[in-house]
Amino acid sequence: MEMRELLESKENLVSFLKSQGFKEESSYKDREYKGVVFLKIGEKKLLAVCEAFSEEKIKEIKNHFLIDRGLTHVAIFFRDKIIFYRNYGDRRYFIYSKRTADNISKINKLKKIGENFDAIFQTKDISGTFYEQFKLKRDLLVRSIKNDIEPVKKYLIAQKIFDRIFFIYFLCHKKIVRFDDGRELSGKVFFDILIENGDFIENLRKAFTLFNTPHKNNILKIDNYKIRIPYLNGELFREAEEENNLKISLKKNDWQRIFEFLNSYHWIIESEVEELTEEIEEEEAKILTPEILGHVYERSVVEWELKGFKKEVEEATKGVSERKKKGVYYTPEEITDYICKNTIYPYLLDNLGNKYKDINEFLEKASVSDIKKTLKVLDEIKVLDPACGSGAFLLKAGEVLFYLKTALLTKLSKKPNYYEIKHSIITENLYGVDILEGAIEIAKLRLWLWLVSSYKEEKQIQALPNIEYNLVVGNSLIGWINEKLTQISLTNPTTPEIKGIFKGLIANSIYEKKELQKAKELLEKTNLEGYIEAYYVLYTIYKKAHGERAIHLKEILQTIRDAIYKSINSAFLDYVNKKIAGIEEGKSHREQAKKYKKLKRIGISIEDFEALNPLHWRVDFGHIIKKGGFDIVIGNPPYVSSDTISKRMLPSETLILKKLYTDIIKTGSKPDYYFYFIKRGINITKEYGYFSYILPNRIISNDYAHFVRECLLAKTRLIELIDFEQNIKIFGADNHPCIFISSRDTKDDYEFLSRFVTSSLENLLRIEHSISIKKTLCLRFGLFLNNIEPAKIEILRSLMIMEELGNVCKIREGLRDEKCIGKEKINNLKVSNKFVVLKEVRGKNIGRFSLKDFNSFFLMPKNKIKTEKINNYQRQLKKKLLIKELSKMLETTYDNNNHVAYGGVYFISQDGINKIRLKQLLLILNSSLFSNIYKMLFSAGSWHKSLKFRSTYLGKLPIPLPIPQYFIKLSDVLLFLNQYNYDNFKSKNQENKELEEKISFFGELANCLVYELYLKKKLRTNLIKLVENKLKDVDYDNWIKLEFKDDLTPAEKKNKEEIEKKSLGIIDKMFNKLKNSKEIENEIKKIKNHEWVRIIEGR
Predict the structure, then answer these.
(1) pTM of the model as a whole
(2) What pLDDT band is residue 771 in, cutting at 50, 70 and 90?
(3) Where are the domains of the chain?
(4) What is the pLDDT of residues 335-354, one digit of tens each?
(5) Which of 43, 58, 635, 817 has the lowest CB atom count within 10 Å?
(6) In sequence order, what are the residues at sequence separation of 6 or more whose Cβ sits closer than 8 angstroms to the Cβ of residue 1007?
(7) Which CATH architecture does the domain made up of 802-958 adopt?
């Protein structure tokens, strides 16, 4: 079928879609719209194909299926036009019409629709292009503000002026702003009028003032033009103190260039896309929607976070422009959508006793009583993003709540009022915090735009809600939740001025008189809980207030908050300083006199503390914290590494965080910033509430995040962990994220779903590559297990009862002193009584059961090895195992020759091992099983094509006790053969096949013995018993001392040769005896061919 034929009838469209492999869902029906065809177009995706016979019906049909019925897609045939809609994504529509019938791009998208339906909505991301140009215009405005105010204030004023301008563009598109005679007015024409008729800044100020003036018929008069301006309130157009007498030096032609850029885009709200002109329809690359503008803002916020807000302001004021790295700087909607749905949906189902399998079954089969109960839960649900940035997660959470509410009201045969539902969600359900004031302003703007998108022309637009106490500027990580504070000295906020304001408000109030009186009475008593309650009561009224009333309420609220914060700041700082000084609660001042003295010396000052902008959760969100916390906590905390933290954060903040979050910081490690957000998120989530972040996937297994993982497992019930294939670039090349979803309830053990998403984000909804993992298994191995086949999980479960290697021995890192010299300098070294010259071992010198190619020497300070207390210098002179850090398989050898393990080499010394001997352990460490189990668990920490063997990870691996004593003999055989072969042949690039055969055989024998030792019950073999009496002693220890000694005497040389001859003879006899044993051969075959062994080795 030719694509043009699709425009002939709805039937042709349906026929075409079926030919692309989309199956009809005949069981799905709709009572209101007959003749609609429903097609399944993907996992949990349903498309309604219908026909409209008037333009008015297009929007009605779209809203019915996408909002009221909760379908994901709808296709509407209207005359010679087809409009595809979806209810998610950056671009939510696709139009194919008579005018664009020959458009190659659109035709190609339709031809490939069977491969990926959503591909038709994909367009070039213009947010980056727009942002780079907008940034230049904003920075120009910053530099043009000539008032004597701080650069940060100038920057925020410039940002807010553009926020208002953008908002007006969308208001014009929604026909909220129009000429007084009712004619429509585009954003381009509106701003042209302001620029071309008099002083632009003065005209702009008049417009802003009218948006904030509470009259029904505000008329902006510019020359002969009369423009109807609605009262919007909502703080957006409220003039800040710094804006008084604002002096901007931009000339008319400067503003013209700015608006030439802005007017080159089509500012539309996608719910109105059916009204697009044909010209705009063809210019898709120039369409700017609130969703795309949201990504523009996210880029801005991420840049502030990465670079530092003050640095960004400095560059803006100086006119510095820096070329940015290319890449995605915002959270993809697939992620925000998944996290929001998979926290909100299960929370609702939990509240219904989990009687429904999933949200779809609930929406299909819910009883009237369950629907009403759920609507009540939706009215009261509290969703928080503690690092909300530009508000992407809050906006998505709002959408999810909106679709649920409208669907449920529709099921009750009630006609949902979209605007009122969104208004309620914004004011009662969504909360956010961010340290950046600019980010909070942007988040509010996005929520207001979302609200305005549901405005209906025939109704008078309501004033925007005041949400500056829902979205708060502050430091999420530092502040009072419910810690026990002492020495709280309260400041009464009821000044004579505040009393006067209260009197006026109460006198003029009709509906809130009782609440206002209650708040006044609470404030008259000196009681912290009363102040906090009064603050909440007044804020509840303020949210919907406007005009003078809103201004007075805000003044009271700010006075109360300032008074409470003044008291709490001092008390909380006292709590923090005591932690810094190590002062313990319950002990007297006299008992801790030294610590109190230390407190005076190192304590943080109130000025430094207040500079961190602490957020006291118990104050700002007291009504929520008092009830246990937020129902849903979600977000994408800043990806700030430990190295960046030290450069970006004030020393006082670093110190406070380390003292407040000691339980998640591993001793000696540097925590990343998101660690703190995890702990904070847990603490402010209500019991049985849901908690989910997208985080760097380093949290899955990296050693430094060990205690964070333990905290998550101990204090929450992990539900799902999602990792992504590295070729899925979510935040650019250097960031590899993962998602975790958990519930704030704990159990001794439970299973969670561990998933690995491959190829693309579109596979996020698919449940392939998923396994169930037990909490106890993760605790045992110290990581979140993921991307592991179920059979391997079964193997790990069988091993988890064994002793941890870390409990059997201490694995230490080698010396990192700079006291080393190269081989070429050793002969010129002067003899000194201050040090001993020892051969130094680096990773490249270690082979499996051998040492090779010494190129450097270590100058061991004598004073370090003569101390009474044993240290790592002394341990170099003891027998030890040396472990290579980077290798495809673990390579370990034995050292009894005082070689020095240099940094990057791990070692286990004789004084650091118990229950077993070094050479017994050596056979285990060099085994195939041990390396493969390590690879199974910790391959995420690999380095290029090598595994990175870390002491902490090695310490978590299982050790089966007891280990047969004769393993020592086999270790000696392998040590001798490998070292002898290397020294006499391999180092000279020669090959001795006879020796290689023996090394291979004894290595294979060792591997099989270790497999049997670990998997005895599963293998049911008897190799350990068969080999036990067939191994003989080899004098490796004496031989290796002579082998590594320089300048042997003739007697020593003879002795070495005799040991070699004797050892080779013993080994030869053992080799023949063992190799010719059919019983041993059969047992080895059984072990090697066993299913579990093949799985472990990846065969």
Answers:
(1) 0.88
(2) confident
(3) 3-121, 127-318, 333-470, 496-611, 802-958, 964-1099
(4) 999 999 999 999 999 999 99
(5) 43
(6) 927, 928, 929
(7) Alpha-Beta Complex (3.90)
